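Follow-up to my post from last week.
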Amino acid sequence: MSGCPRRGDAVGHAFSALEPDEDRAFTAHLPHCAACRRALADATAVVANLGAAVPQVDPPPALRDRLLAAAEAEPGTPVRLALASPGTEARDDPAASAPAHPATPPRRRLVAAAGGLLAAVVLGIGLIVARGVLPTQATPPDTPAVALAQRADQVVDDARSRDPGLRSAILRDQAGDPAAVVLDPSDAAAPIRLVALDLPPAGGANDYVVWATGLPGNAPVAVAVVDPDDGLTRPLESVAPAGPGVPGPRGYAVSVEPSGPAPARPSTVVAVGLTVA
Amino acid sequence: MAMPMASVPVDVPHADTARRAVTTPLAGDAAADAALLERLGRGEPAALDALYQRYGRPAYSLARRICADDGLAEDVVQEVFLALWRDPARFDAARGTVASWLMTLVHHKAVDAVRREATRRRHHPTTSEPDEGLAGWAAAGPSAARQALGAVLGEQVRSALRRLPTEQRTALGLAYYGGYSQREVASLTGVPIGTVKSRMFAGVARLRVLLGPVLGPSAADVLGDLA
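User reply:
Got it. Predicted complex:
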């Protein structure tokens, strides 16, 4: 069987054991990888049976009563049965490729959108144009741009539910569409994470480099490297000032760089965004 | 620090016996489940009640094991069965049995619930064990045969888990029965997360072989490159 470096995430996905950002990345990867789909099917079959090993305990009788009362109180009528219809996948179905958490309604992040422009100025490279920086305003609701915006919001909401003090940045590409999310935990000792949504391919022997922008002096600082093969964020030895009273990055950017030590300045910037507390 | 794994004193049934015991009744169950789902699609509460009578016990047992909280486990079970009530079509017979689908969803929901209660869970003893014994499975009644069948499957699963290398069993157990993320498992066991991923992947592959008679042919076996 052909291999894929992300097959390990198939097991994590089936066991509901991935971090939210990993889960999003794997879910996005799944439709494009037959090896991971096979690994997920096998892992899901195992997961379905591990539950049989626990000691069996009768539920309290009141639970049955409560369940039936709740069912009868449900508004409307259950949908008609359509067994085994191809492509029928519920969002909550753990074996499905859809995200495990319900989608959050689309929200307009004007601040983050405007941040794309600000970060471009800070970087001094003027790479982001205004077109599309407000994708939810004039775009039909079923377009990929809106889907990306929803996923970006979802990633931020999931992370913030675990860490209310988290700072985040939705990074947008040149078209203004969400391309990635940076999550900066409230714990200064915890590393930042980059969640790729729709970054352009890095190409062979290249990495994504995450840059903190808007720091004192306005020079972008490389803070992490992401290997496109595994999608994991590897923090660099931070040279960014941090601590009480020291402002954090006003934004973040992602560039594509040759694998190896990060350069002093970004070369090919592919996405930028403003930090939101 | 690896978590200690207690031995589980359960005899392993002969493979042929186990195969007969598992596969033959399940064929009848599948037909009965399909009929119940059809009635569920017509909005018959009695069908939901019947499905709950069939699968409420293993569902509650798993939720209780993961949540370590009876109230939370009840909420999980209710959420799972209500989900099926609202939309029976979310079950796809081509992807497995109702039992396996429900148990997978129970696990998923229970892990979600545990993580929402993360602060409370930190005070819960860490364990990677499914726990010993099958307390209460032998209760007499109309569902005794199904419970006996469940016990056979439970024995097979525990036996398969015992045959895994300790580090694989620990990683899988903490993730499945403890509801820990791979990152948390790495922290608990003191190894890099990549090692946890590798151990879980190898452990699942091994379980796939050991539980082959229960699980059927693997996706790779059936679909090859078409999967």
